[in-house]
Amino acid sequence: MTTISLSHLTFGYDGQGDLLFDDASFDLDTSWRLGLVGRNGRGKTTLLKLLQGKLPYQGRLTVPVPLNYFPQPIEDEDQLTLYAMQAISEAEQWQLERELNLLAVDPDVLWRPYASLSGGEQTKVRLALLFTDTTHFALIDEPTNHLDAASRAKVAAYLKLKQGFIVVSHDRHFLDAVCDHTLAIDKRKISLTQGNYSVYEAAKKQQDAAELAENAKLKKDIGRLRETAAEKGRWAATREKDKYGDPHKRGSGAIGDTGFIGARAARVMQKRKNLEHRMDKAIDDKSHLLQNIEEVAPLTIATQPDHHEVYLSVSELTLAYDGKPLFEPLSFDLHRGERLAIVGPNGSGKSSLMAALLGQFTGEVQGTVVLKSSVTISQVRQLYPDNRGLLKDFAANRQLDLEAFLNNLRKLGLERNAFATPIEQLSMGQQKKVELAKSLATPANLLIWDEPVNYLDLFNQDQLTASILAYQPTMLFVEHDQDFIAKTATRVVPLKPLNR
């Protein structure tokens, strides 16, 4: 058995406040299929970098195996895929073909330019490259982004054939299918669970429930002890006056048995001190609770329902490039209050459809798209290179309610240092939160969202789901996450591709 060992590991980025890892210690067996989970910004990718020796740290870190990392940087995306892969590795063609066959990918993709592959094909090719090297331990960082449900299932089945890796993902179904151990970077501790994500989640919910119950009991006890101690303090103070008598009556000799009164008052004061000691202990016990419970506040959505019953009508719509249709003719109406999910495999034309609905498609269009002229739209896009500059200026340039915009970012868990960092310098997860918060703060009748939960952690996904169900906005969205679709969509429209 080979073990990766971390002992008293301490690390934090300069100028970013709290430490990401503070005296962390744990061991990882390299035969495990380990899921690495945690909220955005908690240090998952940082941990992978530490394992690779890319960052300085305090403590001891023992990695007795060579490591390979996904996603690998591609040096020249215009090369044929085979040559692009061989430029960054020593993989043989037959090795790549073997792994691609296991992933149910036609090996002919090796003879196409890498840049021409779909996002899903690029992901699978790089995963195939990762596992051509059987001597290295694999670190896999978010392989499911942009993959359709069928591709996620194929990648999960592929990884189950492999022994020994660490995978970061925000797809709970994928983690359940793949992992036999889970390492969670929680709010105040790192926990290692034998089992998949659902096993970890059930254990955490049980622990959280127990802590909440204990916290409620201690809170009640502290209140009762505080009131009892106060009553005894008031009684002792009154008896202390009795010991010397009422100063207005001293001249008449109205002085009590000072010895008896004093002794009784002393006993009451001691009881009060005992109560205060018990109260201090209860408060100390309480201080150790709830530190690891995630606080996920509801988001606000600036939805503004329109008076029309039907917002959007699509009739016999087909889209094509160079005369090649992307999908079968499509017809649907979007009614006020509906949340319509567009689903289909990678490359079926979902993003092209979104562009066509917004009048931005550059290919050939047949059929009709009728959007009511009074309907206003708020978008979440897959790509947002124009999101730049400081958050305050970004909001001003887009006429956003600054308070609503920043409040949603805080609720989404954007780290404090990010508020003073230009958007283009933020991580992909942080940039996604900016794009989402922008849409949430934009007054609109209709939300058109393209893969809204990509890069969002599981807590943010649940947070977004809860807010959608609370506000009931009219939506049309593309998404591959089956859990999000099942919980939020009122209707599903499948795209049936013609090029497959």
UniProtKB/TrEMBL annotation:
Keywords: ATP-binding, Coiled coil, Nucleotide-binding
Claim: Nucleotide-binding is one of the keywords in the record: yes
Keyword Coiled coil: yes
The ABC transporter domain, residue ranges: 4-212, 312-498
Coiled-coil residues: 265-292
Pfam families, alphabetized: ABC_tran
Annotated InterPro entries: AAA+_ATPase, ABC_transporter-like_ATP-bd, ABC_transporter-like_CS, ABCF_ATPase, P-loop_NTPase
Name of the featured protein: Ribosomal protection-like ABC-F family protein
Originating gene: abc-f
